[in-house]
Structure formats: structure tokens, C-alpha cells
């Protein structure tokens, strides 16, 4: 047991020698307890000063306090160095390498209807068609009258119209367009033949939704006007479109149909992608699925545009992008496209 007569300087020298070789915080804590703890060597000396004569107590007390202060300072400095080394080690081990690529971020994608629309437009652009656009809020004149559908024509029942509260000459005159065909007239008003355009856009109809109908749809209208355009040109254009969208193995068929602004009119069908023409529920047991309506532009419309109907002929067609997407991807309900369900949309 150390006594107050032991040379204090020897305790100081020993403590500093031991401190110099300490290499971690555990050893440092043991050193502190050995010299500065409640039962440490220096603490016992300080407690034993009370038994010494006054003069000796003063001199030894001053020396002991000096040594205590030195050891406490040395301990703090050593502890600070250990902490700095630990932080530097952690920092080096977890250092960010700015040359590495960052973590992948979630990527969005185009809506399946948008992607289908782009695919359709690319097909027609490769055939020489230009892309044009028109207003979604349309005049009754362009949407119906200029297309040979006057106010009392029963063909208006084919389009369930969303009218806008606007009257001209005592009757409703503005509406949300029911198809993109009004752009036939707008383009013909400002363009001279030859014309080859496709017009994409949203259309709106006041009807109940079901697996094959929506109140809003995306449509593409096509128009070609030139010398000598025939039904053969129309059939060849649409057959090429169907094969490039649905596959080279697709079979196509044309069937007569009625549209007020074409004569003759027809619809384009492809063989059912499920039953391959054998007949199933999807194709109504016919083996064929309708994908668009088309026909030769009515001579009256050509004449009303200021063109010579004896010289110019043309064809027009209209197709619904949602219907094309349903058939391409085998989706059974058109409402899935607009339900904003990421589980569905992320599949495309």
C-alpha cells in the first residue's frame, strides 16, 4: 500500500510512462481508475495528508494537486485522441464514393393509352401522313352539320353528345366533340390537296360506362385527299396498319357499314386473337373483331370544301385507341385504363 512518504514524483513518472503506451479506451479507463479513481494511488495520498504536520501537508498537498491536474489533463487529451481516431476510422469506412452510381430511383412510364397512341401515329407517319390537332370544344357546325349530319338527322343518335350552355340562332351550338372527324373540315378549309393527315385527340360522349365503353376516349381520325385515290388505297393502308400493330400473321376483313360523311362506308376487322377465327365469346362467335370505321369521303363534303369532286377523291377513317390497346394487350375492361391502379398500369 502506497503511503504519503512515497515520493510523489515517482507516481507521476510511472503514470505518464503507462499513459504513453496505452492504445485503447479500455486501457485508458483502467489507468484512470488506478491513479485518479476513488481508490487510486494519488487519491490515497491526498486522503492521507490530514495525518501530516501542517508544513509537510502544505507542500505535499500542493505537489499532489499539481500532479492530479496534470494527470487529468493528460487523460482528457488521450481520450480526445481516441475519439478522433474512432471518428476518422468510421468516416473512412463509411466514406461516400462519389464516383459510384447513386441508388436507383423509381421510374415512371408512359400510360398504356399514350404508348398505344404513339405506336399508331408512328405507323401512319411512316406511310406519309402528317399529325395535326384540333379543338376539343367544338362548334355544332364542324362536329355535325359540315359532316352531313344536320340538326334533324337521325344519325345524330349515334353520338350521345355533351352540349355546352351556349346558344346561337336559338339552338345549342357548342359541344365537347364526339369524334375527331370535325378536323376533316377544318383541315380542308385551310389546305389544298394533296392531303394526308392523322388527327389524334380526346372525344367525349354522354353514355354509361361498361367494359367496352367510356365517357371519354382517345380517337385518331385519318384523311387523305388527292387525284385518283380509290377504295383500294384505303384497304391497302388499313391492312398494312393492322398487320403492323397486331402482327404480320393477322388476317383482315372489310365489311360494309354506314357513316354519314363517307360513301361507301366500311369497317375493318381482324381475326380474333383468342380463337384465331374459330369463334368465341370475345368476338361474339364470329371469329372477327371490329377495330375501326372508314370509307371514301362523300363527294358533297369535297365540293363544300371548294375542291373539284370530279378531280379529287379521298378516304377517311377513325379508330379508338382504347379499343386497340384492349386488343393488343388482352385487357377485358376498358375502365382499368383510367382507374389509376398502379398494379395494373405497372404491367405495361
- Named at the architecture level, the CATH assignment of the largest domain is 2-Layer Sandwich
Individual helix count: 11
Beginning-to-end CA distance, first to last residue: 84 Å
Which range does the strand content fall in?
A: 15-25%
Helix content, binned percent: 25-40%
The CATH class assignment of the largest domain is: Alpha Beta
Number of strands: 10
Structural class: alpha+beta
- Described by the principal axes of the CA atoms, the overall outline is rod-shaped
Query: So, the CATH homologous superfamily of the largest domain?
Result: Bira Bifunctional Protein, Domain 2
Q: How many separate domains?
A: 2
Report on the biggest sheet.
7 strands, mixed
User: What is the succession of H and E elements?
Assistant: HHHHHEEHEEHEEHEEEHEHH
Mean pLDDT: 84
- What are the low-pLDDT stretches, counting only 5+ consecutive residues below 50? 1-5
Instruction: Provide the CATH topology of the largest domain.
Output: BirA Bifunctional Protein, domain 2
Provide the gyration radius in Å.
45 Å
Main sheet: strand order: 1-5-6-10-9-8-7
Provide a descriptive summary of the structure in words.
The protein is of the alpha+beta class. The chain folds into two domains: 86 residues; 234 residues, 2-Layer Sandwich (BirA Bifunctional Protein, domain 2), CATH 3.30.930.10. Helix content is 39%, strand content 22%. The protein is built from eleven helices and ten strands. The strands form two sheets. It has a seven-stranded mixed sheet with strand order 1-5-6-10-9-8-7, sandwiched between helices. A three-stranded antiparallel sheet has the order 2-4-3. Strand 3 and strand 4 form a beta hairpin. Helix 2 runs antiparallel to helix 4 and helix 5 packs across helix 10. The radius of gyration is 45 Å and the shape is rod-shaped. It starts with 7 loop residues before the first helix and ends with a helix. 27% of the residues are buried. The N terminus is likely disordered.
